[in-house]
């Protein structure tokens, strides 16, 4: 899809900036917020004067952000959501009124943000070193100000304490959904260290909602942060939740209940079933069908999330499973693939994401899978891997037809989901 000239120009200027989402962030990733603080100051702090929810976590932060926006919207408030990464188009990162930003508005927002960066470069201040994500974050805040939204829901990109979104005044509520071992070269090698980084979004004057299991080391760190800052801490974890969505809804409802103390008409039960369905995001436990094969797409990229996603998938579709998998270069192949080997996946189709610059080669994924005992093939492109997987799921077993039709899971990376989702567009059978 070609972009209008103004947007095409803005995107070209944006792509000239360093994009840590597509680089090895363990080697040289920025360790301070000086550029972003300079930019928001020059832009006049566009988030001020609006309600703000700030959401971090290893799994579920995008979905919880979407659910919070749905609840706020149903109470009559206008809402802007900033999220990342996008699955198919950059427009998905900035949503107003539940819809991705339009071409003209995105071009204006990026143009304004790039203009602020140019001014900082001319003055020789920190903002001149802004990254790709800094600029997109500022564009989101500018777009929300231009649209005059009542509330902003900010999803953290990576971590929390040093994330580009963490330059706002104290949010009305800070949410940490879950904590898992991820990005350990950047965030730390223990759950406690990672919780400390993600808990960096909590500020005096906020409230904190967490979805971490009480008694665990991550939860203890987050509770201590709340005590140290003198903020109210509500635990929204429950062992009764059977799906990601149930856990996410529980966290979002707890946050909405807190916000409802100062927002007339806002309640946790604003999240009626239809609102929950409307808030679902692409590439998160999203079902498709191709011919007779059911395909689940989920961008799970840490072992615990992948294990839970597979368990939820098998509960919905108990037959044999195959998986199309690509793995981010920051991830341990054996650790990420182990849940698939333990979980009974019978065939793996390994691939990479060409052009991303950050994924393990398909052959390396296949080699690691074979070492775990998985039957595996490797493919140069996601489309080739999916085509082979669909062919395998449709063919009869040697010696006769299978009693159960295999289902497929596309997982390991949201970039992989983004590459393959258009292939199955129009066949969504969300369940």
Count the domains: 2
Number of helices: 15
Name the helicity range: 40-55%
**CATH topology annotation of the largest domain:** UDP-N-acetylmuramoyl-L-alanine:D-glutamate ligase
How much of the residues is beta strand, in percent?
Answer: 5-15%
The low-confidence runs, each spanning 5 or more residues with pLDDT under 50, are: 398-402
Query: What's the total count of β strands?
Result: 14
- The topology string of helices and strands comes to HHEHEEEHHEEHHEHEHHEEHEHEHEHEH
| CATH H-tier superfamily of the largest domain | Mur-like, catalytic domain
Strand order of the largest sheet: 4-3-2-5-1-6-7-8
User: Which class of the largest domain in CATH terms?
Assistant: Alpha Beta
Sketch the major β-sheet.
Answer: 8 strands, mixed
Q: Kindly, what is the distance between the CA atoms of the first and last residues, rounded to a whole number of angstroms?
A: 29 Å
Report on the structure:
This protein is an alpha/beta fold and 431 residues long. It has two domains: 274 residues, 3-Layer(aba) Sandwich (UDP-N-acetylmuramoyl-L-alanine:D-glutamate ligase), CATH 3.40.1190.10; 139 residues, Protein-Tyrosine Phosphatase, Chain A (Alpha-Beta Complex), CATH 3.90.190. The chain has 15 helices and 14 strands. The strands form two sheets. An eight-stranded mixed sheet has the order 4-3-2-5-1-6-7-8, sandwiched between helices. It has a six-stranded mixed sheet with strand order 9-10-14-11-12-13, with helices on both faces. Strand 3 and strand 4 form a beta hairpin. Helix 7 packs parallel to helix 8. The longest helix has 21 residues. The two termini are 29 Å apart. The relative contact order is 0.12.
């Amino acid at each position: 899809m070609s972009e209008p000239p103004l947007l095409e120009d803005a995107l070209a200027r944006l792509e000239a900036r360093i994009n840590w989402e597509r680089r090895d962030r363990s080697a040289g990733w920025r360790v301070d917020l000086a550029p972003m603080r300079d930019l928001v100051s020059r832009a006049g702090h566009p988030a001020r004067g609006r309600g703000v929810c700030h959401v971090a976590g290893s799994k579920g932060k995008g979905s919880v952000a979407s659910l919070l926006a749905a609840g706020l919207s149903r109470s009559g408030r206008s809402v802007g959501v900033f999220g990342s990464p996008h699955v198919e188009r950059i427009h998905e990162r900035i949503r107003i009124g539940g819809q991705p930003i339009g071409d003209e508005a995105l071009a204006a927002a990026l143009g304004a943000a790039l203009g602020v960066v140019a001014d900082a470069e001319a003055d020789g201040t920190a903002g001149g070193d802004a990254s790709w994500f800094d600029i997109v974050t500022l564009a989101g805040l500018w777009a929300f100000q231009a649209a005059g939204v009542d509330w902003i829901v900010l999803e953290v990109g990576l971590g929390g304490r040093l994330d580009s979104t963490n330059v706002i005044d104290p949010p009305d509520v800070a949410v940490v959904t879950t904590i898992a071992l991820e990005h350990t070269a950047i965030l730390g090698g223990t759950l406690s260290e990672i919780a400390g980084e993600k808990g960096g979004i909590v500020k005096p004057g906020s409230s904190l909602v967490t979805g971490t299991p009480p008694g665990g080391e991550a939860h203890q760190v987050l509770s201590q942060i709340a005590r140290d800052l003198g903020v109210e801490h509500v635990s929204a974890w429950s062992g009764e939740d059977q799906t990601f969505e149930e856990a996410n809804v529980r966290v979002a409802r707890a946050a909405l209940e807190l916000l409802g103390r100062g927002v007339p008409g806002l309640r946790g039960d604003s999240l009626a079933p239809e609102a929950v369905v409307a808030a679902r995001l692409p590439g998160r436990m999203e079902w498709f069908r191709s011919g007779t094969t059911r395909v689940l797409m989920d961008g799970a990229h840490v072992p615990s999330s992948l294990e839970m996603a597979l368990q939820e998938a098998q509960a919905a579709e108990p037959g044999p499973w195959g998986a199309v998998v690509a793995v981010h270069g920051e991830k341990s192949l054996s650790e990420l693939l182990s849940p698939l080997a333990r979980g009974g996946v019978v065939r793996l189709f390994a691939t990479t994401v060409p052009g991303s610059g950050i994924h393990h080669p398909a052959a390396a994924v296949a080699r690691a899978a074979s070492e775990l005992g998985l039957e595996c093939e490797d493919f140069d492109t996601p489309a080739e891997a999916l085509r082979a997987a669909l062919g395998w799921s449709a063919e009869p077993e040697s010696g006769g037809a299978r009693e159960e039709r295999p289902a497929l899971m596309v997982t390991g990376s949201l970039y992989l989901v983004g590459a393959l989702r258009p292939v199955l567009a129009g066949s969504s059978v969300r369940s």
